[in-house]
Amino acid sequence: MVCALALIAAVVAGCGGGGSSTEKTGESEETAEGGGGGGESEGGGGSLKIALLLPENETPRYETNDKPSFYKAVEEQCPNCEVSYFNAGGDAEKQASQGEAALTQGAEVMVVDPMDSKAAAVIVEKAHAQEVPTVSYDRLIENSEVAAYVSFDNERVGEQQAEKLSEKLKEIGSPKGPIIKINGDPADPNAALFKAGSNKVFEEEGVEIAKEYDTPGWTAENAQKEADQAITALGKEGFAAIYAANDETAGGAIAAMKGVGINPEERPVTGQDSTVAGLQRILKGEQFMTIFKPIVPEAEIAAEMAISLGETGEVKTKKPTQMIENGKTEVPSILLTSTPVVKENIQETVIAENFVTPEELCEGAFAAACKEAGISG
């Protein structure tokens, strides 16, 4: 099975930068036997054309985790289903065009992680007009006939980040901060939830936010510019920590501090997504924490939703759903839980869950830090 999945990944890898690829999951060298089993969802026995549309490849998780996890989940639940893959490369207009292309190619179900949650409504509505259901993946598409939604409790993610940073601020003797706050992309509804959750905790803890920014595209480059501006305005000694909404923005903030001679080990920085780069910065002491969001169950549920919608027209999942309003309709939804990750629990979280391997994390200069943190295969 491992070899078969690696083959699938190799076939589609060249198309991630904004193109598309198609893979009939049943054509790999080996296929999983049976469907999902248990509960209401029994896995697909027929054949469906499923389109997977992901938003960008700046954030490593989409190509490294989400895409292969979704392919594997579909293969296990519906071996004869066919997946067409598209990556918008950070361009909402391109994603809209990709949605049209997927429909033209005969997609019977769409799974869409929107680059822009408002703009992506046109994708959903065009699909709906052709009686093609859409699963909103990771980010909720607004004001449209979304058939199902799977993500994490994203306001809670923001709370977890702020709770850990507030604890750390007390530990280093700066319980009130002040902090620089680098939020995510304003076009991403999840960014608004991270922001709301973290601001709620910072207000409760009395942490002063000296400068706050929203970061277009979630890019490290934009985050670095924002951190540079904040440090220039506040001075090198004018802040105690940086809240960064994810690992990419954390990397930009850390680069800004290094650029002006600030030791990032002395200014805790948050993150999210448990990227290899973020975890390695945690091992080095440059980044304080990240958030682990287990992508495999998210992708499995997305596949389960897509297959049940395509085969029965209804959302059938093992986990119970809740209804979430998207501005036009109430959407059957599943929200998963996340876990804060610091140096001390890398082994028992991301390593234990096989989200990253010790080989990925501990290569070269990071071997000693891994050994110190008790990380092993």
Structure notes:
The strands form three sheets. The chain has an eight-stranded mixed beta sheet with strand order 1-3-2-4-5-6-12-11, sandwiched between helices. A three-stranded parallel beta sheet has the order 8-7-9, with helices on both faces. A two-stranded antiparallel sheet has the order 10-13. The chain folds into two domains: 2-152 and 294-336, 3-Layer(aba) Sandwich (Rossmann fold); 154-292 and 340-372, 3-Layer(aba) Sandwich (Rossmann fold), CATH 3.40.50.2300. Helices cover 41% and strands 16% of the residues. By secondary structure, the protein is an alpha/beta fold. It has helices at residues 2-12, 61-77, 92-104, 121-129, 154-171, 189-205, 220-234, 247-259, 276-284, 295-312, 347-351, 358-361, 367-372; strands at 20-24, 49-54, 82-87, 109-112, 134-137, 148-152, 179-182, 209-213, 241-244, 290-292, 322-325, 330-336, 339-341. The protein has 13 helices and 13 strands. It is globular.
